[in-house]
Amino acid sequence: MGDREIEEPGAARRGMGPAIEAGEDNGLSELRRKHRADLERLTMTSQPFKTSAFFLLAIAQSSGRAWSSVLKIGSWLKIVILSIVATWGLLLFTDGPHAKHVQELLWYVRFGLWWIILGVASSIGFGSGLHTFVLYLAPHLALFTIKAVQCGRVDLKSAPYDTILLKRMPSWLDKDCLEFGPPIYQETIPFSKILQKVYLEAVLWGVGTALGELPPYFLSRAATMSGRTVDELQDFNAPVTEGFPSLTSHRAKRWLLSHLSFSKILLLASFPNPLFDFAGMLCGKLGVPFWKFFLATLIGKAIIKVSIQMTSVITLCNNQLLDLVEKWVACVFRYVPGVASVLPSLVAKLKTTKDKFLSAHVAASASIAVKGKWNLSFALIWNTAVWLMAINFLIQIVTSTAQGYLKTQQELEISKKLSEIKLSASERSSG
Q1: CA separation for the pair 124, 126 (Å, rounded)
Q2: What pTM was computed for the model?
Q3: Residues 169, 164: Cα–Cα separation, whole Å
Q4: Which superkingdom, per the lineage (predicted)?
């Protein structure tokens, strides 16, 4: 009887153990649900002040870490950095024969940074980036090609950096063709000649797009090293059945992207596709070496993909496309009954269209006098659209940064809660 009385409290505690653990699990699950809801509500539209505050805290936290890293570097490196900064300050703020060379160098630096930043803005943010190819690079390529075709020459730029820049239009855009001199090419301008004049800015833009793919890679790599899983890769953890999975499922993405090789990364980076953000994250998760991932991405985006995009734009804006259509139509329909009779008139219409296209600079010159209202309204619409997209892109960056900061705080809270649960369980087991 006494033994049973002694055993009953322990038995009661053991009987209550699962209930207590279930309560603790429920409390942790409830906390996770609350965290998810808080994370979803943290946007600039629903909680603008809180989102802005978390964004500033995240920036301050990152700045503090960066400053700490700077303070930890060796003394000799600090001296080198200070010497470089002092030398640049002396060159920038003193007059002399070097001033024009420094100014020229600054123009090149501004040119390079502008196109690289546009490339980064185009690829960063899991498809929510500012599509700067459509807004800037493609119009620049098209305008240069059309101007070159109209003037019959490609030496339009005053310098390699004579392109569309922030608050600055290229000098050649509004010039009359007579200011450049007589046409050099009477017929078709060689494709390679146009390509040489616009390839540098396109490659810089492509380098920027490659750099913009690095954050998902490093985010996933850091999460894997800390034992966490990035939310976007949760679906990749599902087991893949044998055989070829459905292409519409998340498992298909995992099946296609698993064990990424250099050639697969290069292939994915060489054409626009929605899988590349996930490919970068998966490379980070699987521990693909940085240089292997970045080199394949750089070659694919800055050389292959950019070359394809440039070829498309230049061909569409050059009379070479009309020549190609003319030859293709003549070749295909030459022996088709009923079509051969109308083929000469069709070819004549194509040639007339080409002639009008090549002589379009005459109409453009004649319309300079009435340029005012239409150009003003078009510029206003265009600038408004660009600014709206830029503001939306900025809002997404602020929201994403704020949510990342909140998620870090939530993970700390979860870790603290788990430590408390383990400590409580340890105390009960020892009791």
Answers
A1: 6
A2: 0.66
A3: 5
A4: Eukaryota
